[in-house]
Give the backbone structure.
Amino acid sequence: MESQGDNGSVGRAKTAILVQGLGEPVAILTEIYAQAAAGDSGKRITFRGPVKVADKTVSHLETVILPIVDRITCSLNQPPRDYILSISNISASATREVGLLITGYSADLSFFLALLSAGLQAAIRQDLMATGHIGSLAGDVVPVLGVAAKIEAAIASGDVTEFLFPDLEKDPSAELLAPRDEYDRERQSL
């Protein structure tokens, strides 16, 4: 994060979502927007816009990611805040006048960055993209599927110069439990 810069980059984090097409899933870049609001609304996280987020993903945001953001912001003497979140709809959905449904945890790291940026009112570099599942209240970031496709999307965009993602080899469970061809494809992309 940057402490100065374009205010338009406060609360904005790039991410890539996997979209199932006719063949292999493809990754499409999009952005997560977070806006800090005064507390006391009774709901800490509210989503707005055409992109919907599955209940299990919202629950994970509220029970794992938000407490980490609160812990950091409170340590810097910032009060806990409520947040309004929005995800940019992709044109393939917008042209059909529908929104996407985000169902997984691969955008956890991007949600975290957007929330922290909004909570601290600190800009995020807009040439940065992240993917990864925040797997614990300690902030452990673990690998997700589709890193190869997400790297391809980041390169193709021309806007991304850095891509943050967790080390696939840190936790051997993906290698041991995922289908071999899927794991090999991810490893080869790195």
